Amino acid sequence: MKKPRIAAAALAMLVAVLLLSGCGAKDGNIKIGEVTRSVFYAPQYVALEKGFFKDEGLNVELQTTAGGDKTMTALLAGQINVALVGAETSIYVYQQGAEDPVINFAGLTQTDGTFLVAREDKGAFDWDQLKGSIFLGQRKGGMPQMAGEFTLKKHGIDPHGDLELIQNIDFANITAAFASGTGQYVQLFEPQASIFEKEGRGHVVASFGTESGKLPYTVFMAKQSYIKNNQEKIQKFTNALQKAQTWVQEHSPEEIAQAIAPYFKDTDMDILTSSVKRYKEQGTYAETPAITEEQWNNLQNVMESAGELKEKVEMQSVVDPAFAEKAAGDVK
């Protein structure tokens, strides 16, 4: 009569072991929602492709949630754990009085990633050429649009008075809209800007990244409650990002393009390479995940200029620097 009891006890122990091992696997899972698929985010793809996340014991699942509003909705709804999106979205959530605010814990890019693309080549570019033109802009309140307006104002152009600004086209459809004939100028990320140049559909005439200065343009963020309950996981995530950022700094555009190619299967290698080169040359890719006070202040200046900032938000209210600081010190 004792053998069945022993067998039952052994079975119970086996089930417990399987449950515990399952929990361990689950603990390493992180779902990321990226605001768009772009060469702009090269260090993220490097971290995935080079196995830096796996080296930290993480199983990262990446999905594209087109547009900052959709990405933030997915994060707040718990459909993703971590969002890769503009830092301004965390300010919007904070200013709405959220009980569980969104916290920025690691920066990926430190400049705007869009380029001004003109439909016609008019020779030497002057910003005054935009006056009276039809400009296909980005979503109101999003960082691309705010950085664009900030730049135009810097050059003495009223974005809502000196040109016809189109902002009613969904983020995912802007490229197609310009390709079909809408607008004389458009604001595009890479590799779309380089693709248009190669196809003869447009000409890159200026960089909004160079013009608008350094700011925490795209960051990894999560709900405060998630970070509190998953501090070790967030640290491992940030460590992997630091490894990828260092790798990108130390390797050539050609090598980076080869590494991220699986995420851009329909893009020619020469286009990938030229896109990466543009971003590297203007210092777009952050060297560490740290978000600085200077960058944060510039971000709010850009938002204020666009009329999208109710009041200044102290950096410590929505930024946790601890993970980036530890990664910068520990990761070699």
Automatic annotation (TrEMBL):
Primary location recorded for the protein, binned into one broad class: periplasm
Subcellular location: Periplasm
Entry keywords, A to Z: Signal
Domain of life of the source: Bacteria
Recorded GO CC terms: periplasmic space
Signal peptide coordinates: 1-25
Keyword Signal (UniProt): yes
Alphabetical list of PANTHER family matching this protein: ALIPHATIC SULFONATES-BINDING PROTEIN-RELATED (PTHR30024), TAURINE-BINDING PERIPLASMIC PROTEIN (PTHR30024:SF47)
Similarity section: Belongs to the bacterial solute-binding protein SsuA/TauA family.
Protein name per Swiss-Prot or TrEMBL: SsuA/THI5-like domain-containing protein
